[in-house]
Protein: Acyl carrier protein
Amino acid sequence: MNREELFKKVAEIISEKLNVPIEDIDEDSHLIEDLGADSLDAFDLVMVFEDEFGIKLEDEEIEKLVTVKNILDLLEEKISD
Structure:
C-alpha cells in the first residue's frame, strides 16, 4: 500500500469516526484542533487502525499521534515491518 492509498483509507476512517467531511482532512490536519477529536475519539481511531491494518500500537506510539501525518508515518512503519 503506497502513501496515497494509505492516506485515502486513513482519511475515510477519520471522516467516518469524527463525522468530518473527507475533503477537510489533509496530512497537516491536527486531530484535536482541526478535526475536533477528543481523547475518546482518539482511542476509537487507534482501535480501528489496529483492526484495519492488523497491527498493535504501543502507548508511547499512540501519544505521538497528533496529526494525520503522524498517523501515516507510524502506519507506514508498522505495515512495512
In short: Helices lie at 3-18, 39-53, 59-62, 68-80. DSSP finds four helices and no strands in the chain.
